[in-house]
Every structure is written in structure tokens, then in C-alpha cells.
Amino acid sequence: MIKQFGYFLEIVKGSLITTRHFVVNMFFHILNLVGIKTKRKGAVTRQYPEAPIEVARRHRSLHRLMLREDGKPRCVVCMLCATVCPSECIFIEATEDPDPEIQKYPSNFIIDLNRCCFCGFCVEACPEDAIRMDTGEVELARYSRGDLVYDLEKLTG
Ligand code: SF4
Ligand code: SF4
Fold first, then answer.
1. 67 FRET partner, CA 20 to 30 A, in 6, 18, 54, 107?
2. Is the pTM value of this prediction over 0.90?
3. Ligand 2, closest atom to CA 125?
């Protein structure tokens, strides 16, 4: 009899814990629905992908190449990014620039995202602030590997 009572007691305790979690989570979920933000983010179910997730500003997302005011890439083809890249996934074609101040510009700049590990070394190494990883684009699933090879047009687009 005592054993059966103990068993029943554990069921009641378990039900109370479940109910407490349900009520607390529902409370925070309703606050979120009416636009009141709290620190209890875990209590709110994200409706992804219908509601996109917020990416922190410092998050390393898809690369982009920065442009000068005249529309040309800021990159001067110093090759530091390609040299420092641990995945060896940056390929740059250099072309001579008529401007002696610039000397070279990339006629093509390819980043193979199939191999990129998003370490951010290329961004840190660049002396011209020509490459950044601040697009906020993190949805990089593709149907083919070729779609993950980003060229100059895609990186400046
Ligand atoms: S983030 Fe890292 S792996 Fe990707 S291209 Fe830059 S240096 Fe290479
Ligand atoms: S480090 Fe910067 S300037 Fe040098 S090749 Fe890479 S993107 Fe261009």
C-alpha cells in the first residue's frame, strides 16, 4: 500500500512540474505575442522559416566585396586573403589597372563556399577592408555545389 502511494505521489509531482513549465512558457509566449520582449528567449518557439531569425551583427555570414565610389572593387589583389585562407577556397584573377595608385584590380574573385569554414581570416587579413562577412545571409543550402561557388558578380551584387 505504501509502495503504491509513493508511486502515485511521483505521478502527481511529475504532473505539477509539467504544468508549471507549461504555464510559465505560455506566459512568456503571450508576452512575446503582444510585443513585450523578455530575457526568457528559450520559452518562445521561433516560427522559422516563416519568421526569419535575427543574426547578431558580429556574426560571420556570407561574404561580400566592398566597392569604391567609382564602382570598382576596393580589392587591390594583394593576395593576403587567399594566402591566409586555411581552406584554400579563394581564387583571384588580377588585371592591371590604368590608375598607378591602384595598379591591380580583380577581373574575377571566386570564393568556393563548399570549402569555406567561415573562419573570417580573409576579412581580418585584408588591408583595404575590401572583403566583409556582414551580409546577414546564413541560409546557404543549395541544390548543387556549383551554386555555392561565388564569383565577382555575386560577391558584389
Ligand atoms: S572565411 Fe576562412 S575559409 Fe572562408 S574564405 Fe575566408 S579565410 Fe577562407
Ligand atoms: S586581402 Fe583584400 S585587397 Fe588583398 S586580395 Fe584579398 S580582398 Fe583583395
1. 54
2. no
3. 1
